[in-house]
Structures are given as structure tokens and as C-alpha cells.
Amino acid sequence: MIITLGNFIDGRTCAAQSGSYLDVVEPASAAVYARCPSSAAADVASAVAAARCAAPAWAATPSAERARVLNRLADLIETDIETFAAAESRDSGKPLSLARSVDIPRAIANLRFFAAAATQFASEAHPMADGTINYTVRAPLGVVGCISPWNLPLYLFTWKIAPALAAGNAVIAKPSEVTPFTAFLLGELCNRAGLPPGVLNIVHGLGTDVGHALVEHAEVKAISFTGSTRVGASIATIAAPKFKKLSLELGGKNATLIFADAPRAGLIDTILRSAFSNQGQICLCGSRILIERSYYAEFRDEFVARAKALRVGDPNDADSDLGAIVSQAHYEKVLGCIALARAEGGNVLCGGEAVKLTGRCADGWFIAPTVIENLAPQCRSNREEIFGPVVTLQAFDSDADAIANANATEYGLAASVWTTDLQRAHHIAAKLETGIVWINCWMLRDLRTPFGGVKHSGVGREGGWEAMRFFTEPKNVCVFL
Ligand code: NAD
Predict the structure, then answer these.
(1) How many angstroms separate the Cα of 375 from the Cα of each of 102, 292, 369, 382?
(2) Is any ligand 1 atom within 6 A of the Cβ of residue 249?
(3) Tell me, what's the pLDDT at 304?
(4) Of the residues 24, 291, 329, 330, which has the maximum number of CB atoms within 10 A of its CB?
(5) Dihedral pair phi/psi, residue 40, rounded to 5°
(6) CATH 3.40.50.2300 at 3-250+457-477, yes or no
């Protein structure tokens, strides 16, 4: 049976005005199992109208009440965590165990974190020498747009809507059309959570229809976008002349710098996770592994042996380490990148091919964890984002060599540095052209810290007060006493 999803506009579940739908496909089986509205500008206009109506009262709602509603939403998701985890896994192809342990708990944490932030966000005061006082109040922007990608569907959807709502805005949110299911489920809980109609509106459909209309709409004061650098650039060209606030979290080509003195305990485990978690489809994944030459061969041999032992399988199986690639188009793109790496002279040490499963997953889109060496820093395979279970290995001879190679990409999202020499680690962290550096760890996240990238990885930061500031407009009042 095909499940029909709806938009959530003005507190009601509804179809797109055109009545048209997009197929929703399970990547593990390639079967269509649901359909989501294929909305357009008219649906965005309805959502904006509802949001405009709801915005003043929500902005005036005491922050403690806004926090209560967000916490209630988190509670409702938590009560039904298995439904959400199963839906996320089915929609995206990620292992159910990952959706259950990472994606949905983090979505719940996002809502709770920004519920608390709502109650702690304060005005600032700047007294001057003569006793004059400046006070800076931050008001919500009104109606804002949040556009999220498919790789961490509910995790990134809530990472945007939670601060937007906590700060007192009315929101139009557009989940990826590739993975709409958990955003739909969240919409179905909003009324029970006590969110007034129109405060959160969820409009499904293609980026070129819904996303574009949202970015274009004059009443939408800010766009918070996570996705590809290509789409981020096109959003910027539309939003910038309209003077909208923009937060762009874009692609990455992150380096993992491993020195010969790297602490060995848990090293290979964490580097494997950073390479292949979610089939390598996490913007923070370390896809270029740089290893000090004296440790290169030992690291390579152990890493490749462990990568070969990873199990690619049905996302529902508890022992699957990797599930399916999110869509046929992306599967073909990743296989194309592997072919390019071979053409560029890459030596495929393991993987490098599709994995054919049997039974219900016989038609699914699976790719073996792939490790490639012998590629120069400047080749396309080492510069362009692949966003799949594919990593390259390169040797370096000195700190300067490692830094130059790590920075030899247009992207600048994250990096990790592995060494017991912390002085060296700090010096290297200072020179890496990224928004995030992990030392002897990967993807440890404190939601208070600024999150985002430099260069072509984006503009602006999410997380903590950065997000609350993004979703508010400051006004300074200077009082001469
Ligand atoms: P994408 O850019 O194709 O789509 C992202 C979202 O934008 C989707 O909801 C899509 O429908 C919408 N969209 C597409 N075209 C649009 C347009 N013209 N106007 C407005 N909206 C439009 O990205 P994706 O393939 O869904 O996600 C993968 C990408 O996201 C990768 O490049 C990855 O690195 C990046 N990503 C970045 C971060 C980060 O925090 N920096 C996190 C996760 C993913």
C-alpha cells in the first residue's frame, strides 16, 4: 500500500493545491512506498499567509511557553522513537541502528536544547563612561524559511526549525523531497504539542518549485539552508538582492590528518566511522585521509582490512554497518566518482563497486566501502565532494605538507587531527582553513558551539547563540541619562 503524505499548513494536513505528488522510494529495495505532495509557489504562498497571521502572537508568547511547546514536541517524538527511527531508515537507507541511536535522539535533543535557549536568551547592555546606557534587544524576524537536505533528515530539519521557533518566528520548512517522511510525522504532532496553527508550516516538493518559491517570497525574511554548494550559490543570487538574512551550510571535502604519533586506542574505529558512517553521506565525514609517511603503510593495511570487514546490508539488520545509498541518482553519481578516480590513476584498495544483495534488497542501491590511494592532491577525486562511502589515502612528509594538502580544496567545513603532540595539534588547528577542527576525536558535538564552514562550505554559523542571533534582528537603544 502506498502511503500518502501531506503538507502541514495552518495547523492542517493538506494536499498540494495542484493535487500532484512525487514518489517516495525506499533505497534499500528501490520500491515506491509513499508519495509526498509536489507543491509549488501557490502552496508556499498559503503557508506564508498562515505564518504571517500566526507570527505576531507567537512572537509575543512568553519564552517559557515557547520552550514548553518545543519540549512537548520532543516528548512526543521520544514516545514514538521507534516509529520515527524506522521511518528515517526506510526513507534514507541508513541502518536502523543509526537512526535509532543518532538521528532521532539528536532531533529530540535539538528541540530540547533550543527550548532551553529560548528561556536563556537575553538582551545585552553596554554602559558608556558617562553613564549613558545602550541596551540591545533582539526581536524575531517574523516569517522565516528553513530548507534541509536528505542525509540527516529529521536531525537537520529540527536543527533549523527549533532555533527559529524558539526565537519567536513563524516558520515555513521544506524538507528534502528525497526523504520527506519524518518531517511529515513531526507535522502530525504539532497540534498535540500545542503549537498554534500557522507557527510551523511544512511544505513538501521539489527544490526548484518549493525551495525556489520560498527563497523568492518577499515576506520570508531569512533563509536557513543546508545542502549542496551549487544550490547554496543559486539561493544566494536570489536572496542577496532582496537583503534577506542567509545562513548557508554547504558541502565539504574534509581532511583527516593522522600523524605517526597518533594515539592508537580506538583510532581505526573512529577513522572508519568518520569515513563510512551513513554510507559516507555526512557533511562532516573525513573523505581525504592524510597519513604521515612513516606510519602510512601500517595504517593503510589495517584500515583497509577493517574496511573490508564492514558489512553492507539490509538497513533493518542489526549487524549491517552500512545501508543503502539514498537514491538511484546519487548511487550512479558515486559510482561515477569511483570510475573517475580509476581514470585519474587511483589504486582501489577495497570496494570500488556496487554490492548486490538478495531478497527484499535485491534491487537496492548499495556500494562497498571504498578506499583509494595513489591520487594527487590536485586531482578531481581529491577536490570534489563525492558524498558516499569513498575515501582516499595520501602520505605527507611534514606539518607544512599536511596543512597545504588539507587546505588544497575549495571547501572548508571540518577537519580532524590525530597526534599525541598537542602543541603541534594546536598549531595545525590554527592553520586549517575550516570552521571546525577535531583533535583526537570526530563528530563530538556540543550544541552550544558554532557550527559551519568557510570557503565554499558556507556562510554563517549554526548552533547555540549563533542560531538564536541569526533568527533575530538586534535593535540598539541608547539612553542618555
Ligand atoms: P541539495 O542542495 O540538492 O538540496 C538541499 C535542499 O535544497 C533540498 O530540500 C532541496 O529540495 C532544496 N533545493 C534544491 N534546489 C533548490 C533551489 N533551487 N532553491 C531552493 N531550494 C532548493 O542537497 P542534498 O543533495 O539534499 O544534500 C547533500 C548536500 O548537502 C551535500 O553537498 C552535503 O555536503 C550538504 N550538507 C551540508 C551540511 C552542512 O552542515 N554543511 C550538512 C548536511 C549536508
Answers:
(1) 33, 16, 17, 7
(2) yes
(3) 99
(4) 291
(5) -145, -170
(6) no
pLDDT at site 321 = 98
Q: Which residues of the chain have pLDDT under 70?
A: none
Q: Ligand 1: which atom is nearest the Cα of residue 215?
A: 20
Average pLDDT of the residues of the chain: 98
C-alpha–C-alpha distance, residues 459 and 187, integer Å: 29
Q: Is 168 in the pocket of ligand 1 (CB under 6 A)?
A: no
Work out whether strand 245-249 and strand 458-459 pair parallel, antiparallel, or are unpaired: antiparallel
Give residue 390's pLDDT.
99
Which residue among 88, 249, 292, 373 is the active-site one? 249
Q: Which of 253, 274, 264, 255 is nearest to 393 (CA)?
A: 255
**Residue 172 contacts by C-beta under 8 Å, 6 or more apart in sequence?**
44, 47, 48, 51, 143, 144, 145, 146, 201, 202, 203, 214, 220
Q: How far is the CA of 138 from the centre of ligand 1 (A)?
A: 29
> What is residue 120's predicted lDDT score, i.e. its pLDDT?
97
Q: How many residues does the chain have?
A: 481
Could you confirm whether domain 255-439 is CATH 1.20.910.10?
no
Give the ipTM.
Answer: 0.98
- The pLDDT of residue 129 is 96
pLDDT at 165: 99
Q: Domain-by-domain residue ranges, the chain?
A: 3-250+457-477, 255-439
Cα 333 to Cα 59: distance, rounded to the nearest angstrom:
44
Q: How much is the pLDDT for 292?
A: 98
Q: Is 249 a catalytic residue?
A: yes
Distance from Cα 225 to the centre of ligand 1, integer Å: 7
Query: Which of 94, 151, 155, 253 has most ligand 1 atoms within 8 Å of CB, for mutation?
Result: 151
Q: Which of 176, 334, 449 to mutate to test the pocket of ligand 1 (most atoms within 8 A of CB)?
A: 176
Q: Full-prediction pTM beyond 0.95?
A: yes
